[in-house]
């Protein structure tokens, strides 16, 4: 069924493992949240492990720090996020989809629906590996962002790995320092970057 929440830190669906382990979340309904720190769906492993999130419904959030879908591994492991519904966020620092690995591992994000964000620092899709690993982002829907520092799609690897971004939909951004598609590496990392876009970017 559908899920709606109104309070702060009241996520639609949340799965947390406090040590090593895996989090797997499957959602087929629509999700809406209104509060601060209220992600639509969040999966979090504090140690080593994998986070896998699949969502087929639409997701909307209104608050600050309220991502549509958020997947995070603090240790080593993989984050895999698949979304086929539309995602919209209104608050500052509220990405449409965010996948992060602090250690070594891969981030794989696939989005079929449309994504829109309104706040600053609110990417449409953001994939980040802080160690060694690959970031793979595939988006077939349209993405629009309005705030500053709010890229349409952003992939980042800190050390070694590949960044592969494929977008077939249209991307529009309105804010300052808001690229349509961007990939990055920090320090002395060895990263191969491949970006393919067949839609319009404005």
Write the layout of secondary structure elements.
Blueprint: E1 3-5, E2 13-17, E3 23-27, E4 31-33, E5 41-45, E6 51-55, E7 59-61, E8 69-73, E9 79-83, E10 87-89, E11 97-101, E12 107-111, E13 115-117, E14 125-129, E15 135-139, E16 143-145, E17 153-157, E18 161-167, E19 171-173, E20 181-185, E21 191-197
Parallel strand pairs: 1-4, 2-5, 3-6, 4-7, 5-8, 6-9, 7-10, 8-11, 9-12, 10-13, 11-14, 12-15, 13-16, 14-17, 15-18, 16-19, 17-20, 18-21
- How much of the polypeptide forms β-strand, as a percent range? over 45%
Order of helices and strands: EEEEEEEEEEEEEEEEEEEEE
Distance between the termini: 36 Å
**Average predicted confidence as pLDDT:** 97
Tell me the number of strands: 21
Low-confidence stretches: none
Q: Please bin the fraction of helical residues.
A: under 10%
Largest sheet: 7 strands, parallel
Taking strands numbered 1, 2, ... along the chain, how are they ordered across the largest sheet? 1-4-7-10-13-16-19
Number of helices in the DSSP assignment: 0
Structural class: mainly beta
Structure characterization notes:
The protein has strands at residues 3-5, 13-17, 23-27, 31-33, 41-45, 51-55, 59-61, 69-73, 79-83, 87-89, 97-101, 107-111, 115-117, 125-129, 135-139, 143-145, 153-157, 161-167, 171-173, 181-185, 191-197. It contains no helices and 21 strands. With 202 residues, the protein is an all-beta fold. Helices cover 0% and strands 47% of the residues. 52% of the residues are buried. The strands form three sheets. It has a seven-stranded parallel beta sheet with strand order 1-4-7-10-13-16-19, with no helix packed on it. Strands 2-5-8-11-14-17-20 form a seven-stranded parallel beta sheet, with no helix packed on it.
